[in-house]
Amino acid sequence: MSIPEEAREIENIFLDFPNYSCFVCAPNHPDGFRLKFYHVPEENAVLAPIPAAGPDRAGFPGVMHGGFQAMLLDEIMCWAALHLEKKIVFTGKLSVRLTGTLPVDAPLLARGWIEKGGARLVRAAATIEADGQVKAKAEGGLFVPTAGEFAKVLRLGRVPEKYLPYLRS
């Protein structure tokens, strides 16, 4: 799937994060999606083209497993929070509605945006499209951790300095 010409690639700030291996966005994950994310200012949204997933990500033959769909929707919402709200978030609530089937043999497009920003909680929404039609959608409640909470969850001695501005004080 193509992205609009005005879209600009978002820098992946996690490339040098300790032990970074996100299944969706880490560029070196051997089995992952390795997605790149783009900002579309006119839509105030974040997009991610999803290459054909392949048969290993199918539930039924030819159809992407719903768990992978939920994971992709969650990820695009978190990237929307990162880029549009400048916040690193953890998902607290995820509501997914699968409105059609997503093929594993064709490219897709994920789109995420912010419904309501906040210092502690962010509400976001997302869709995945196939052939220009929305086939999956989600809403999420995203929690902005403090540096202490972030370090504890990720078992870090301390949070690297460059990530502190994205966390709650």
Spatial extent as radius of gyration: 16 Å
Low-pLDDT regions: none
Sequence of strands across the biggest β-sheet: 1-2-3-5-6-7-4
**CATH architecture level-2 label:** Roll
Mean pLDDT: 96
Characterize the structure shown.
This protein is of the alpha+beta class and 169 residues long. The protein has a single domain (8-166), classed as Roll (Thiol Ester Dehydrase, Chain A). Helices cover 16% and strands 30% of the residues. The chain has a 7-stranded antiparallel β-sheet, covered by helices on one side. It is globular and about 45 Å long. The model has no long low-confidence stretch (mean pLDDT 96).
Question: What descriptive keywords fit this protein?
Answer:
169 residues, alpha+beta, Thiol Ester Dehydrase, Chain A, seven-stranded antiparallel beta sheet, 2 helices, 7 strands, 16% helix, globular
Blueprint (SSEs and pairs):
Layout lengths: L7 E2 L28 E3 L4 E6 L15 H20 L4 E9 L9 E9 L4 E10 L2 E11 L3 H7 L16
Antiparallel strand pairs: 1-2, 2-3, 3-5, 4-7, 5-6, 6-7
